[in-house]
């Protein structure tokens, strides 16, 4: 029987495998933190018992949701199965503003569904020689409330469940902070991926802190090849990355259905994930 249902952990691992096959390069340990954000926000359509299409629409707060992982298994494309999970996901969001990072091929479809472009997110790839610095220390559980507040001030919304899980260290995902005058001045998380590692979220006010933080994250993850997704408004970060040999390899359009959050990104800001914002 064909049906749309909530994903299990095993279902999500399957869908992340589809994403890997499409070159999206997910992390090695994303599923648990994704589900912690909103266990009811991951939808899968089965056709004759086989997984066919998927989407996530995670309700981060009472007024904001984020759409991602919109993907169909190759054998089931062009049959309308994607629309079924799309509709289920948006129904889950209710009256919330919904954000997404749309690939160029799909942006006009999103416009027809009421989404409005608000900017770009540019993915950079480059290599960093890992090194330690005296001003770096591991991220602690006690840091998370302050980081949640910093994130909310920059993204314009609370994402406490998601980031509380994401910022908790695992064997493949770790974080560092720079503390100055008793407050967090910069922080970042890095996770091992199918290829290299991705940095995000990432927040720094100073170029020197951003450079130290990136080098420290490269050292602790043990992978020199790094990817980071940067909003187009963060001109200082684009300049810093270009100056260190990073190259843009991919971009998406940040789009919203409903009132866009009031963002105020730090000069050096990296998106946590394109799947959950």
Automatic annotation (TrEMBL):
It holds the Pfam family Acetyltransf_18. This is N-acetyltransferase domain-containing protein. SUPFAM superfamilies: Acyl-CoA N-acyltransferases (Nat). Residues 2-137 form the N-acetyltransferase domain. GO terms for molecular function: acyltransferase activity, transferring groups other than amino-acyl groups. It comes from the Bacteria. Gene3D superfamilies: 3.40.630.30, 3.40.630.90.
